[in-house]
Amino acid sequence: IKQDYDNSIRFYQLAIEANKLNSLKGYNEIGTIYAMQGDLSNAVSAFQKAIDYNNSLEYKGKVGSIYYNLGSVLMQLNQKEKAFEQFRLAAAEFIREAELNPSAMIYSRLGNTYATIGDFDLATKTFVSAIKLDATNLEHYDDLVQALELQQKYDDAIYVLQQQIQMMEYFKLDTTRQRN
Question: Taken in order 166, 170, 171, 176, is the CA torsion positive or negative?
Fold first, then answer.
């Protein structure tokens, strides 16, 4: 498996060398691979290269996930203050992305970012927005329930679970899967 990871890293590096426009995605993927291998310092470096490349552009790309990934790696390195700064930047980027093109996926990522920094009230509101945009995605309900539970709003969490069950029955979705 390590050889597959190394080959993937080389592939992304070649793609970046061939065309700088591949830098944003390429460095993010390289950072993700390094993080999965436990090579956290190289992961930080790759994510930072993606961010630096984006900052050099006149028209900025979508980098919310890259900030989030960098924050996650910094948390693993026990650099909490730096990590939280990256999470705040991720939230700002997700908000910008949602304003340009509202989607359940972006609201879900934003909600997860808020939950990561401990703002469960905003996470709850954001997960509700995700459900409004895609009521058939079971993960949005799971995320909302967890955010409510962490606020000890158990009656609200039960209500959301009941809504989820009704939606699953109505759309005949898979009811055998495990909740997170």
Answer: positive
Tell me if residue 33 falls in helix, strand or coil.
helix
Residue type for 166, please?
A: Q
The pLDDT tens digits of the residues spanning 72-87 come to 999 999 999 999 999 9
- Please answer whether residues 112 and 103 qualify as being in contact, where contact means their C-beta atoms are separated by less than 8 angstroms: no
3-state secondary structure at position 169? helix
In this prediction, residue 179 carries a pLDDT of 52
Question: In whole angstroms, what is the distance from residue 79 CA to residue 81 CA?
Answer: 6
3-state secondary structure 61-121: CCCHHHHHHHHHHHHHCCCHHHHHHHHHHHHHHHHHHHHHCCCHHHHHHHHHHHHHCCCHH
The per-residue pLDDT for 30 is 97
Structure tokens that stand for 116 in this block: 């990561």
Query: pLDDT per residue over 136-166, tens digit each?
Result: 899 999 999 999 999 999 999 999 999 999 9
What kind and span of H or E run contains 36? helix 23-37
Query: What's the pLDDT at 90?
Result: 98
- Taken in order 8, 13, 19, 21, the sign of the CA dihedral is positive
Q: How far is CA 165 from CA 86, 95, 124, 126, in A?
A: 36, 30, 19, 20
